[in-house]
Amino acid sequence: MLIRHKPEIRSSEITPEHNYLNRRGFISSAALAGTSLLFATSCSGADNKNSAPTGNHTNLDVNSLEDITRYNNFYEFGLNKEDPEKFSGAFNASPWSVTIDGEAEITGTFNFEDIIGPHSIEERIYRLRCVEAWSMVVPWNGIPLGKLLQRFKPTSKAKFVSFETVYRPEEMPGQRAKVLDFPYREGLTIDEAMHPLTLLATGLYGADLPNQNGAPLRLIVPWKYGFKGIKSIVRISFTETRPYTTWSDAIPTEYGFYANVNPAVDHPRWSQARERRIGSGLFAEKQPTLMFNGYADEVASLYAGLDLTRYF
Ligand code: MTE
Asked: Of 163, 221, 181, 210, which is closest to residue 75 (Cα–Cα)?
């Protein structure tokens, strides 16, 4: 298959941070006035079913571009938070292709444009809560994962969806150092993958994803700990059985497959009850962590009857 280059985004299409924040202020007022702007629903965390906005999401304070791009977890580029920004410069996210395989009628390897092209890009402001008890709020751009997956016509055997990060040790120093079992892999149940809040992000702050944030394509599941948000995806597989996932299979006592944000279930080595907001200053008080990261109204029903202490 011919792999085309990803089109350059014109600089006029990139929203500078200060304009972005002003625009956001404008849109929030428009939302209050009852318009049906897409942004208004996504900002509130509401889903495509136009459910009523919940109080948790309307006043999220967006982090600066600097916070979002200089404090990262991307072990392919090193273990320190500043490593991904420092060491991802040589990573080449274009051209890019993604293989879709497993339990679906349509499978194959597709170039980035063919995967993303038919969809309109949405803006979603989500809180990212890392398992390490810090959080930030990011204005993502992307497409609901479910919309994309439907196009490949998953069969009735597709019970899970798994994801794999690119393996390029020559461009990723952390892969050469073998600090984890690479390639990084993650997975969701099919219901989680199809949930309207689940996003395949292609950008942030109105521009393409920076390398350190998972260019050109990464997963965002806002009610789960950040490690579920696998970066630089090259493979999406529909599976009948629960897939291998890097962290929960490496250290199952510390990282569960579900990884739902839950202040009541501690990590074995630290509490998950509170979180440090990146950018709020060294002496700022920690904030209480919300059940399902504040998205309980939208997602709690997915886990009805499940013992969340056991299936953490
Ligand atoms: N994806 C890959 N491929 N490698 C990683 O090390 N780290 C995860 C997740 N996705 C990681 C990854 C973790 S632990 C977190 S908290 C988020 O990415 C951080 O995303 P951010 O750097 O954009 O804030």
From this structure: 181
The most distant pair of C-alpha atoms in the chain lies apart, rounded to whole Å, by: 54
Reference 299, options 9, 16, 54; nearest CA is: 54
Predicted confidence at residue 283, as pLDDT, reads: 87
Domains identified in the chain and CATH numbers: 11-303 (3.90.420.10)
- Residue 81 carries which side chain, given as an amino acid letter? K
Provide residues with CB under 6 Å of ligand 1. 72-76, 128, 130, 165, 184, 213, 226-227, 229-232
Q: How far is CA 227 from the centre of its chain?
A: 9
The residue whose C-alpha atom lies closest to atom 24 belonging to ligand 1 is 72
Question: Measuring CA to CA, which residue among 81, 65, 86, 199 is closest to residue 138?
Answer: 65
Question: Rounded to an integer, what distance in angstroms lies between the CA atom of residue 78 and that of residue 91?
Answer: 13
- pLDDT, residue 282, reads 80
Question: How confident is the model at residue 39, as a pLDDT?
Answer: 30
**Do the Cβ atoms of 257 and 248 come closer than 8 Å?**
yes
Rounded Cα–Cα distance for residues 63 and 24 (Å)? 13
Determine contact, residues 140/203, Cβ cutoff 8 Å. Answer: yes
Q: Which residues of the chain have pLDDT under 50?
A: 1-16, 18-19, 21-56
For 4-52, the pLDDT digits (tens) are 333 333 333 444 454 454 444 333 333 333 322 233 233 333 333 333 3
Check if the beta carbon of residue 276 is closer than 8 Å to that of residue 129: no
